Recover the amino acids of this structure.
């Protein structure tokens, strides 16, 4: 019966999940402290949930097949401190959303089947997340929930990106992150009705004795509002400020056991996990060949360019290229425009390498398309979206 509803979910999934959020926030406004309200307004969260529900329905007879979808979401849930008691609330309102949108199509039999299915899927998440909570608490210096960190340094990296160096306010030990992981920042902002939680990738090497996040200030555009948290961090958080932080999370991490060439591709602020990977690999795999390719609008918004250039000068096995779409001077980059297939493939040393890429949605889709056309295997394409999850390979 669940599989029979797949065509309906394809047609009405986002409408159902949008209605679900309306109902849930009406009855449980306290959950606005957890869910990203900007993503709610833009509709990103509804689309992400609809994709997850659709995947679960499609694979209901083989739930193990949805584990690739489960793991990134479970990491995010752990970082946001989602607990087992939240799942019944979500389930109840998801079923109410289905009833409201589908009307008489949502027969008692369909709703009963979906209630059973939801409980099974919820149990998968609860079980996976329980292990994650335990794992992070068992690490030396690990912690649950949020822990106060002090901003020990604030560095302007470009016209739009600023780095914040974070150390525990209590001075006690804390665990190393894995290159590519992120932190959840809890922002309690004057004048805001609810707290705001945001994930920011750690941009420094592992084992530095500090977490560094490099935050792009999101200005208002025709399509999106001004970023509440990014502007708060840029304008009101300074050296000495205290920020509640959850432990590092995320499964988009560098495989340090792979010795093949490493290709790092980034667009805009997507360079933050790439910088963590680059800084880590030159410490732990000093002989590994690395190619770092970054795309940005222009030199004014390009963060950490000098650091990458210093690494390239120091280590002959590391090389880099820069692409600007709107450079102030053409000789300040290696290519003007975008990273297209004809420019990219001649500079790649091989297709038998580890490829990691991160950036805006259009950039991600283009990189995936180029690499697959270059016959890079699916297993060697490692990527992560900022924001709501999306199936890149669709």
């Amino acid at each position: 019966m669940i599989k029979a509803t797949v065509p309906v979910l394809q047609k009405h999934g986002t409408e159902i999940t949008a209605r679900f959020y309306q109902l849930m926030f009406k009855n449980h406004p306290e959950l606005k402290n957890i869910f990203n309200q900007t993503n709610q307004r833009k509709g990103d969260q509804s689309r992400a949930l609809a994709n997850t529900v659709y995947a679960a329905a499609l694979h209901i007879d083989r739930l193990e097949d949805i584990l690739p979808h489960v793991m990134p979401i479970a990491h995010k849930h752990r970082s946001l401190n989602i607990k087992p008691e939240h799942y019944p609330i979500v389930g109840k309102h998801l079923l109410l959303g289905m009833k409201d949108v589908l009307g008489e199509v949502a027969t008692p039999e369909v709703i009963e089947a979906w209630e059973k299915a939801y409980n099974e899927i919820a149990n998968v998440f609860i079980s996976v997340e329980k292990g994650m909570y335990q794992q992070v608490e068992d690490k030396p210096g690990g912690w649950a929930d949020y822990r106060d960190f002090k901003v020990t340094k604030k560095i302007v990296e470009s016209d739009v990106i600023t780095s914040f160096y974070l150390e525990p306010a209590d001075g006690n030990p804390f665990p190393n992150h894995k290159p590519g992981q992120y932190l959840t920042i809890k922002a309690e902002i004057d004048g805001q009705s609810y707290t705001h939680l945001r994930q920011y990738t750690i941009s420094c090497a592992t084992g530095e004795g500090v977490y560094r996040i490099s935050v792009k200030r999101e200005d208002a555009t025709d399509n999106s509002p001004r970023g509440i948290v990014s502007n708060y961090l840029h304008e009101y958080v300074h050296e000495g400020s205290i920020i509640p932080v959850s432990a590092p999370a995320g499964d988009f991490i560098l495989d340090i056991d792979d010795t093949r060439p490493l290709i790092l591709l980034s667009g805009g602020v997507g360079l933050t996990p790439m910088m963590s990977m680059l800084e880590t690999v030159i410490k732990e795999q000093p002989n590994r060949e690395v190619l770092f390719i970054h795309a940005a609008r222009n030199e004014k918004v390009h963060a950490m360019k000098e650091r990458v250039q210093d690494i390239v000068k120091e280590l002959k096995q590391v090389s880099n290229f820069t692409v600007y779409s709107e450079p102030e001077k053409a000789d300040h980059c290696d290519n003007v425009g975008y990273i297209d297939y004809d420019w990219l493939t001649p500079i790649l040393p091989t297709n038998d390498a580890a490829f990691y890429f991160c950036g805006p949605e259009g950039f991600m889709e283009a990189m995936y398309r180029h690499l697959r056309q270059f016959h890079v295997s699916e297993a060697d394409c490692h990527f992560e979206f900022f924001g709501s999850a999306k199936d890149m390979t669709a």
About this structure: The chain has three domains: 3-138, 147-245, 262-385.
